[in-house]
Write a structure and sequence with these properties.
Layout: E1 4-10, E2 13-19, H1 34-44, H2 47-54, H3 61-71, E3 90-92, E4 95-97, E5 101-103, H4 117-126, E6 131-133, H5 141-148, E7 154-158, H6 164-177, E8 182-185, H7 195-199, H8 226-229, H9 236-245, E9 250-255, H10 258-266, E10 271-274, H11 288-299, E11 305-308, H12 314-322, E12 327-330, H13 332-364
Helix pairs in contact: 1-13, 4-5, 4-13, 10-11, 12-13
Bound molecules: flavin mononucleotide.
Flavin mononucleotide (FMN) binds near residues 53, 134, 309, 310 and 330.
Length: about 375
């Protein structure tokens, strides 16, 4: 166990101060934090695969801004409130979670692990948290749901196919398989221009897209993947349509403006997800943490707000929650964990965030997630 012990003799008694991983323990040689994990994965993956995941659009200003926004925030810890017992659990749209950290939809896990999302969801299941699964998953949504049973905590990120029959077929399948919400990604009408991928001459991913192994009755052609991973024609009317088409909660992801957040709820959204796609779409888009407070204020508690982009530490989770997020999501970190050690790696990422959050809550004077409020922000 990578604990550091300082043993000293004081008046005949031996004091042992145990620092850092006293809550979970981290086997020797495992990365202590997510940045260290990313560096280790960098050494392991092919450069262009690493770049595809780590990179963003254009000059990557927004990628950097997401992290920088956390670096600018400081905490005002509350002291002497008794934090021996801490409860990190919460719930999101009726799904109980061990902590307010979920997995953001990221496509093509087969790129870094042969069993792809089946491994990822096993890691998430051990951590008792939720995985929002990309519609562009390597494994089919049914295979992923089976791996998550008996208690799947799954949301399906729905691609709107130009052929409505295909979209309806995906909705039906997600409902049947036990997914408990549908996520509409609003910030990808076209794909961002990703300079690293262009520089690396990254060819279109030759990967299985498990959800299209078969086709719905009466549909003989699905088109190439570019025709359904983006949909430049998507509008609020489609969100309203989806709301009327399913009984599942609808989550709109990729919101940065307060007026759009209100519009999403008016169109029937049950949660709003503040995201700039990890800086992979519009370079120069505002950092999500900077966009969060105005969205939270405009929604005034009508629906929960999720934030993603640059969350790498438990203290980041604490800050986002203090600014009004109900939960945060991590994108790249799950892929670093998956690339490093499959389900165990994903679990390691989630446990690291959990340990860090638990300690941060204790040190900031929070016994439960309910105690995390704006007064903690300096
Ligand atoms: C490799 C990769 C693939 C992604 N694929 C999707 C996707 O299919 N749908 C989607 O809505 N967002 C996608 N995202 C964006 C994530 O859901 C999330 O918004 C972002 O990664 C959060 O930022 P972070 O990586 O700094 O945590 C992807 C991100 C990455 C890194």
């Amino acid at each position: 166990v990578r604990d550091y012990y300082w043993a000293g003799v004081d008046a005949g008694r031996v004091w042992q101060l145990v620092t850092s991983h006293h809550e979970g323990g981290s086997p020797v040689g495992q990365p202590v934090d997510i940045e260290e994990l990313e560096a280790a994965v960098h050494d392991k993956l092919e450069q262009r695969t690493f770049d595809y995941i780590a990179g963003g659009a254009g000059a990557e200003r927004t990628v950097r801004a997401n992290r920088a926004a956390f670096a600018r925030r400081f905490l005002l810890p509350r002291v002497l409130v008794g934090v021996a017992e801490r409860d990190l659990s919460t719930a999101l749209l009726g799904t109980p979670l061990s902590m307010p950290v979920i997995l953001a939809p990221t496509g093509a896990h087969g790129l870094v692990h042969p069993d792809g999302e089946v491994e990822t969801v096993r890691g998430a299941a051990v951590a008792s948290t939720l995985m929002a699964v990309s519609g562009g998953s390597t494994m089919s949504l049914e295979e992923i749901a089976r791996a998550a049973s008996p208690r799947p905590r799954l949301w399906h990120h729905l691609y709107f196919h130009p052929n409505r029959a295909v979209t309806e077929w995906l909705i039906e399948r997600a409902q049947q398989a036990g997914y408990s919400a549908l996520v509409v990604t609003a910030d990808a009408p076209v794909l961002g221009r990703r300079d690293r991928d262009l520089r690396n001459n990254l060819a279109p991913l030759q990967l299985r897209i498990g959800n299209y192994d078969s086709l719905p009755p009466g549909v003989s052609e699905i088109g190439d993947s570019t025709s359904f991973v983006t949909n430049p024609g998507l509008t609020w009317t489609d969100v309203t349509w989806l709301r009327s088409r399913t009984t599942l909660p609808v989550v709109v992801k990729g919101i940065l403006r307060p007026d759009d957040a209100v519009r999403a709820v008016d169109a029937g959204a049950d949660a709003v997800w503040v995201s700039n796609h990890g800086g992979r779409q519009l370079d120069g888009a505002v950092a999500t943490l900077d966009a969060l407070p105005a969205v939270v204020a405009a929604l005034d508690g009508r629906v929960p707000v999720i934030q993603d982009g640059g969350v790498r530490r438990g203290t980041d989770v604490l800050v986002a929650l203090a600014l009004g997020a109900a939960a945060v999501a991590v994108g790249r970190p799950q892929l670093w964990g998956l690339a490093m050690a499959g389900a165990d790696g994903v679990q390691h990422v989630l446990r690291t965030l959990r340990d860090e959050l638990s300690i941060a809550m204790a040190l900031a004077g929070c016994r439960s997630i309910r105690d995390v409020d704006t007064s903690l922000i300096a």
